[in-house]
Amino acid sequence: MLKEYKKRIERLRKDIRQHETLYYAKDSPVISDRDYDLLMRELQGLEEKFPELICKESPTQRVGGMVSEQFHPVIHKAPMLSLDNTYSIDELRDFHARVLKGLGGFLSKDIEYSVELKFDGLAVALTYEKGVFVKGATRGNGKEGEDITANLRTIKSVPLTIPMNKEKINFLEVRGEVFMPLEIFRKLNKTREKNNEVSFANPRNAAAGSLRLLDPVITASRQLDIFVYGISERVNSLKTHSETQNMLQRLGFKVNTNHYVCGCFKDVLPYIEKWRTKKNKLNYDIDGLVIKVNSLDFQKVLGATTKFPRWAVAYKYEAEKGETKIENIVCQVGRTGAITPVALLTPVFISGSTVSRATLHNEDEIKRKDIRIGDRVVIEKSGEIIPKVVRVILSGNIKRGVLFKMPTQCPECKSDLIRPRGEVILRCFNYFCPAQLKERLLHFASRNAMDIDHLGPSIIEQLIESQLVRNFSDLYKLDYLSLTKLERMAGKSAKNLVEAIEKSKSAGLARLLYALGVRHVGQRTGVVLSRHFHSMLNLQNAKSEEIQFVMEIGETVAKSLEAFFSLQSNTEEIAQLAKIGVQMEVKGEVVGDGLFGKQFVVTGSLEALTRDEAKKKISALGGRVTSNVSKKTDYVVVGSDPGSKADKARKMGIEIINEKKFKEMLGI
Ligand code: IVH
Questions:
Q1: Which residue, judged by its Cα, is nearest atom 22 of ligand 1?
Q2: The domain that contains 649 carries what CATH number?
Q3: Which of 410-414, 496-500, 560-564: highest mean pLDDT?
Q4: Whose CA is nearest to atom 1 of ligand 1?
Q5: Where are the alpha helices (DSSP H) in 106-221?
Q6: What is the CA(244)–ligand 1 centre distance, in A?
Q7: Residue 253 and residue 383 in one domain
Q8: What distance separates the 2 farthest-apart alpha carbons in the chain?
Q9: Whose CA is closest to atom 10 on ligand 1?
Q10: 659 domain-assigned
Q11: pLDDT for the residue 537
């Protein structure tokens, strides 16, 4: 019977892998998403029933692995070189001339070049041994990178197994670029803004940030993708770079389809022009093209400098520019009170769209570039970056515009603006400025914050307009009578809303911390802070230095909290909330804190639970799991077949516990 199930599990894994390659790497699925989900669910069901049959290569096991405190160094077998780059066709001709010279004695005909897109992401190396993905690393400084295997496993277009035996190879290191598709990037930034988190400047930063997260579960949610473009060492049977790419494709990797083999150098040039505008229509950022000598023998003859191969060069596209006039300069109040000057422009068409606004960033930037209202200016637009003013066009007979002065009062609430010492941004510090209030209330009520059902945007607007609500605590003063006086508010809706607001009083400290909308305090930070401090009062009384040394919290969060609690209006608001009965202490949301502050390492396999389950249980009780034994480790849990970690722990005198004792600690 077990044999039958085993066979079915193997069949499912094989089919799912095939469908994943077709869907994620080749963009040509042959079954519907629903049918794919059904296969996946069947596999998950069987694996739950027979956990002993789960293996790391199963498509169900992409997300998981231990969260370590840091990424371990990886020395690259062959250095990960960078590319020499140029912005000019003349320099590209020079490159071709150098190639010709370098190959002087070997040439019998024209040189073939492979031309491909230069993806603007992060270079990574994926190592496969005997067909299994065993290690993934960042480029780092080219010689040494960091081990980010757990995060790379979450990228669906990274195959966990490949049919290497077909190519008669045992070892393969594949190189490629991880990136974030543009629509995912836009969605992510929207959510981050909503959640009071700093948004990413561009998709590349977002991809880099996502790959360096310590929690693969979050990395998985970022929906990263990868294009592979090469291997670290030549495979004997291959003669050209394009053959290498074909092999990678056969193995199930995602190779970009926009690559061309040019019979001679002059055929390269039209591709450069073609992609200059076509790049704006892609669903990912590229910053140029890469031109590579196609023959692997020629590549070997040409060799490399310490930094770059001599057989490849990157042609980069300049950010596209346009000329226009500044009609006016206005100031916007951001959700966190930041005042940003924005130039309103005579509309101008650049890289496929009309630009009518450009950010001027801040006062210093306006002064530095001496930008005035009425000036003619050069505007630049590049990828996902907001258009900016590069410079003013000056010539003898052009009349200069009118100087712009930053306002002294908030354009929304008229309170005095402050530019904190050492900062470049002018801010409205009125926490309840209407420009900020609606968004703050929406955030406060949102599902991951206080989770107040029925409190949507239109009701919030009505509540602000009618002056019933000026801050969070006012929400808790609303009653049936005052609500039914509002337009379009039926008795039933009013009753539901009052109940939902009342229920939110016990949302818990973690949610409340997030709901307050303090800059840089996201959902996860709320949880970490609540676990450490247990009450709002403890946090309020903590010194900034103490906060900053809490695991996962840094100086930015600590400073932001300090600034928040230093304002009397904020502490008064918190006191009001407490008085009304909003829960200010940890009660239900952390299941317990029996293991509070304790650090665990789990080694060997446990009988009663998987490592992932063990990790979840420890963390629910306030403890942490790391993958390596260090001075900070409190307990090493040892299952059957433990590795060297147990020996290390013994030597270091760290307490070793067996599964029985561990289960007692967990109360199971
Ligand atoms: S080949 C030894 N091909 O560009 C040659 N690189 O500026 C190694 N990149 O570190 C690179 N797209 O991260 C190559 N189609 C492509 C690429 C590409 C993007 C990145 C890569 C490299 C950087 C160099």
A1: 82
A2: 3.40.50.10190
A3: 496-500
A4: 229
A5: 149-152, 164-167, 182-194, 203-211, 216-221
A6: 15
A7: no
A8: 93
A9: 82
A10: yes
A11: 94
Specify whether the CB–CB gap between 645 and 665 falls below 8 A. no
pLDDT tens, position by position, 582-620: 999 887 444 455 676 678 898 888 888 887 778 777 866
- Residues near ligand 1 with C-beta < 6 Å? 81-83, 116, 118-119, 123, 139, 177, 229-230, 290, 309, 312, 314
Residue nearest to atom 23 of ligand 1 (CA): 82
317 residue type, one letter: Y
Residue 403 CA to residue 394 CA, distance in Å, equals 15
Cα within 13 Å of Cα(278), Cβ side: 10
Residue 251 has what pLDDT?
95
Of 401, 428, 455, the residue at which a domain comes to its end is 428
* SS3 per-residue string spanning 259-285: EEEECCHHHHHHHHHHHHHHHHHCCCC
Say whether both 130 and 22 belong to one domain.
Answer: no
Q: Which of 173, 174, 290 to mutate to test the pocket of ligand 1 (most atoms within 8 A of CB)?
A: 290
What's the CA-to-centroid distance between 457 and ligand 1, angstroms?
A: 46
Rg (CA), the chain: 29
pLDDT in tens, 522-534: 887 888 898 888 8
Average pLDDT over residues 296-301: 95
Ligand 1 geometric centre to CA of 285 (Å)? 14
- Does 593 map to a domain? no
Active-site residue list? 118
CA atoms of 475 and 357, how far apart (whole Å): 37
Give me the CATH number covering residue 44.
1.10.287.610
Q: Is residue 191 part of a domain?
A: yes
Residue in 81, 118, 271, 317 to alter for ligand 1 test, most ligand atoms within 8 A of Cβ: 118
Across 71-98, average pLDDT: 93
For residue 657, the 8-state DSSP code is: E
* pLDDT at residue number 472: 95
Residues 281, 345 within the same domain: no
Tokens of 292: 């590579």
What is the number of residues in the chain? 668
Is residue 19 located within the same domain as residue 94?
no
203 domain residue, yes or no: yes
Q: Which residues contact 595 (CB under 8 A, 6 or more apart)?
A: 618, 621, 622, 623, 665
In terms of domains, do 287 and 418 share one? no
- Domain that residue 108 falls in: 85-316
Query: Structurally, how many domains does the chain consist of?
Result: 5
Taking the centre of ligand 1 as the mean of its atom positions, its distance from the CA of residue 82, in whole angstroms, is: 6
* 118 CA to centre of ligand 1 in angstroms: 6
Closest ligand 1 atom to residue 312 Cα is 5
Residue 423, H or E segment = none
